[in-house]
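Weekly sync notes, structure subgroup
Attendees: PM, AL, DS (notes)

Item 1: joint prediction request from the bench team. They want all two components modeled as one assembly rather than separately. Inputs as received:
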Amino acid sequence: MRKCKTAWLFLFAALYSSSAICQDTNPVNGVADKRSGTYAFTNASIVKDAQNTVVNGTLVIREGKIIGAGSGVNIPADAVVIDCKGKYIYPSFIDIYSDYGVAIPQRPQGNFGFFAPAQIGSNTKGAYGWNQAIKAEVNAASLFTTDDSKAKPLRDLGFGTVLTHQKDGIARGTGAVVTLANKKENLVMIKERASANYSFSKGSSTQSYPQSMMGSIALLRQTFLDAQWYKNSAVNKSTSEGLNLSLQAWNNNLSLPQIFEANDKWNDLRADRIGDEFGYQFILKAGGNEYQRMAEMLATKASFILPLNFPQAMDVEDPNDARFVALEDMKNWEMAPTNPAAFEKAGINFCISTADLRDVKQFWANLRKAMEYGLTETKALEALTKTPATLLNIYNETGSLEAGKWANFIITNGPLFAEKTIILQNWVQGDKYAVKDDGFKSSNGVYNLTVSGPTGINSYNLTIKSANAATLTGKDSLAVKYRSDGKLVNISFSPVPSAKKTVVTRESITTSDSSRTVQPINANAQKRDSLSIANTPDDKSPDLKNKQGAQRTPGQQVTTVAFSEPVIRLSGTISDNSLQGTGVDTSGNPVTWWASFVKDDVAKPDNAKKKTTPVIGKLLFPNMSYGWESMPKEETILIRNATVWTNEKDGVLTNADVLVKNGKIAGVGKNLPAAGARIIDGTGKHLTPGVIDEHSHIAAASINEGGQSVSSEVRIGDNLAPDDINIYRQLSGGVTTSHILHGSANTIGGQTQLIKLRWGADDNDLKFKGADGFIKFALGENVKRTPSQNNNRFPDTRMGVEQVQIDAFTRAKDYEAALKGPNGKNVRRDLELDALVEIMNSKRFITCHSYVASEILETMKMAEKFGFKINTFTHILEGYKVADAMKAHGANASTFSDWWAYKMEVQDAIPYNAAIMHNVGLNVAINSDDPEMARRLNQEAAKSVKYSGMSEEDALKMVTLNPAVMLHIDKEVGSIKTGKDADLVLWSDNPLSIYAKAEKTLVDGIVYFDREKDKQMRLQIAAERNRLIQKMLEEKKSGGSMSPATPSFRMMNFCEEHTHQHGLLSEEAE
Amino acid sequence: MKKYLLILAGLTISLAGMAQDDVYPAPAYKGITVISNATVHVGNGQVLENTSIQINNGKIEKIAPSIQAPANAKLVDATGKHVYPGLILSNTNIGLREIASQVKGSNDYNEIGDLNPNIKSIVAYNADSKIINTLRSNGILFANVAPQGSLIAGSSSVVQFDAWNWQDAVYKENNGFHFYMPSLMPRPARFGGAGPQADPMKEAFTRIDMVKAFFTEAKAYQSQAAGNGNNLKLEAVKGLFNKSQKLFIHCDIVKEMLIAIDFVREFGFDVTIVGGSESYQMAPLLKQNNISVILQQQHSLPTSDDDDVDQPFKTPSILQKAGVLFAITDEDETTTGRNLMFNAGTASSYGLSREEALAAITLNAAKILGVADRSGSIEVGKDANIIISQGDILDMRNSVVVNAFIQGRELNLTDKHKQLNERYKKKYGIK
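Output from the run, pasted for the record:
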């Protein structure tokens, strides 16, 4: 039939011609039975699209396509006419994010942890690219198979078309648009190459690289570059690559709509930035928490695909279980249903998808929930029809009801989004699929029932309310059981009026997910076994259900009838508003009966309560404990009469004032004028510059890209995670600036990111603006993967580490020369080598994880050979042994105060290290490498006072000015001097004392931590927790679907160094 | 004078680069030592200003404002200095582990098997561990050396830190058994939990029941006539039933600690919780059941995002107010216990008084470990386990230990780190 597509011009449609001969290649076993499939749906409300509805319209279809839709449409003579009086017809939905009919490859079982043997190359056989996670060559169209067991549940929800793709890998190849018709693959495929799909997850790839978020980002960026180079070199016939089917496919796929599965608010931004860099706008598959950062979402200018996988309430009945559920998760439970409405409000283009639902049957319940939380009907319909069709460039084929488009539509018994509306039929490519067909022809109405038997003929008034509810009146109102499946009917009643009772029947109401979910398709099915009596509403509206839910247990009934008198039992058929059959009367005599339609039952007005917009808590930045309702503001502040540790020539000033204005230090001295500033009394307190942590791993989604020994292409800054509570906790310890380093998994790690602890800011705003770029190197046990039982990744010794360094810089040198050479523009741009070239040109600086004397000397020598310096040795626990050589080289040292004995290479670490290096003349810092210790860095510095008698001023500098110097930011921070950034800490005591507490911490003149404010926040957190716990308990009481209380574990990143205690809910990230 | 010669001798040898191997345990000293004019922190909350202490034959003989030293007494002028009881690490694997887990050959703390009450840490204790002297330098003179493992890991012993070998080091042998409670915290699979099919709680309770069943049988075993002592495991736990030995239960969360109470109620054991990071949530219940707590790590992050940012720091003050007997230990593997006094210091910044914080690493620790009759405080009749610091031992600004005594023997406070410091200061000509 597809082959006829082009022949199907409007001209033909207008002539109602059926003269085109549809041909295909499939032999027929038997006698050909081709039909034109011409149908006319009359008297329907035809919702052509979200904006246009034709009341009393007609829809005509033929050969799987719409040939007319609207009022005054001619009905072809050969059309089967279906009266749709009272019915609504909508375009069926399009799911733009599906894997329907395309299997997801499974990752083989095995150990892929960091210490497992590395898989350096790809396991994909063939002329493909080097990385197994880049599967640009995969085409969903070649893999797709029709699978009606998966199609039917989607059709039942109202979907007719999906974009399917192989959900595996970072580049996932192309997606295909298929319909959900139960037909041969050839016929359901509407668009063979409809999208190019991507993600950050390497899926089934067993290759070691990439193993981090930033590695995935780097791989995508590099592949964009490689593909461009491959294309150009193919043109120039200069490729040394040979045939690369992955890159070839990648290039071919770039003209398609680009869809990126991001799945999280920060990932959305990460993906979008990759697109921006290379001039592509991704359509972003969202995660559901985007409502927390709508300004950032809007700024992406992307269209979004929204899942409706709203979190379930947790069972927090047991306070000891509730204890471990973080406020963040509870708030997200409450607010996630606002996500679609937030997009609508922000004016962002979006689609709605069934993706990520635990069970697709939740779709309608969750969609209605989203609407309850503000999503409008118009937008919902668009998000399910026109928007996805437009994004996929198939709006000319589907997505609305217009002549020429596929006959993909649904018929409902009422307005689509009304609570009680049922989808009756879903037509896909002109074929009918029954959803709730027995509801199609409503038999509801008033009937004249006649029962004829040996005792005579009796007449009754039968009012059929629904498939399983009716009322019956003889002289009086009679109790009746009525049940019909649309074809067969059972009626039984007592001719004598009797009292009603409540008994137990077999209907079971559970509090499980499915029974709670109110769906049009199941609404009747659920009721099928229940019995109903006159005057009792059969309508178990959700509200009613909720009220009763608490008392119900499985097996118990709701409302029913018992007869105390003998009954007349009738059995028969129903069709075309007439009923007839046979039966047995109260005495056991056979009877015949029939009922004829008299009139419509006058429908009672829908008195279902209008749902009010739910009350929800405030959005916080970040949306968790200690988040702000609004970001704290910059202030003019005068700190008066404090002991001020300037770190400048003035040293420690007593009874001094510091003025903060416009985010900078505006004055230091005695008796400064207040000039409208907020006064903070510093009497008895100490003011120091903010603490700078040279070595930190907080606030990042990933830290280690250990898939290769050289990974200078990865950048911590690509994957900052601003919702890390440790930002706030460290502010409480006076930290204002942190250098977020790549881990130590490999010899040449990744590019670092300097941040200021602007709690509540987004990832970009966390960054320390204008600072020099750094990169992490590492030496020793971690890079040679000492804990691995069977390391197969070069290097395995310190001898090898040197060669990795030399090889990398040698390659970088050659690369740089080639770039500058005559053929420079044809050189493949290599992100890994770009970073190394920057190092050699002193545009990027190294901070090198190091321990023992030998490797320190070796690395300096290596650097000198290539004409650069190691800016900083970090850890550097044997720095005291080679401090003179470090000084000669010009390196800085950033170390721990007193760590040792946690691995072989720290056996000679001593707590006198910092002081010796300091005394030799090195610029020395004390760093944390630890989210807990970072908030006590002032006291860590003080240990040099204890062990080595260092002066207190020099000790404090080790966590303030000295790290600023080694990070090249001492012009901005590190001391208290007019003109510098107002990054300040007011301490309760001498800052080197165990008794010192940060009372206020300022970054850029903004108070981000205030011990008084913190006290209030604790109360607010407790109140908000309590409110949400009560709400979850309420949800449980009302029978909502619940998940067990799940402790909110948090990933923590370190250098893989140690086992410092971080609390019960922290888990070391790999 | 003799003392200074000793130290000088020590230094000279150390400069030869024989890292630590020349730091000898002090010889027995039966004579008299008088420490004079110190600020004495007794360990029980009291502070005695300008006080002198007389030690005789290893015991504290006299504490008085001023003491007329006998002619042959060793004199230590502690004017302006602070005297404390020797600090106690109440739970540690020092001596069983030289280098952290990466170097398996250096590890002797985790035996195979679920029910190992017959395992004794003391027999593997290495009195020559290089870590020990670095602890002594900070005033830490005692440790309760505990085995680790799954379920019942074995018994711990209290050692003193100036010994030639483990037999020399024993201060109290096999003071208690260590039971590592299975976690009752459900873990999602992505955080290392079992798959969705598994029921970790059920599994945990099965294992806990296994331990209870063991004790039930052990109890029956103890009651039987003598002469049937052929089951090493059942035999080993005899002391639990008459409370001559304790049960140390390692656990953290409330549900686990509630189970710990079962062992008091069902078996009448003397129970100490080790870990107890959530103990502040049920302090009155612990008090009611006479359960003491060894807090493992003050310098820790709060459990939940929602917790007070200083929660671990202030947990001790909550236990203190509730009257729970508790100690603070330091098991940080990257610093090997040397920050014990600063862990206590942090507790004192967040609600404990300084003397209460001190008790958590001295007298209260001694009480929990069953050595308070001999150690943990500076009181007449107790062993002279004493340290002298230049200033406040809890504050790194001036926590510098200048003298230390174990049972009256004055320790050589040199350690590997000081020796390396001297060695390289010499290299650079630093004074």
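Discussion: The longest strand of chain B covers residues 170-180.
Action: AL to compare against the crosslinking data before next sync.
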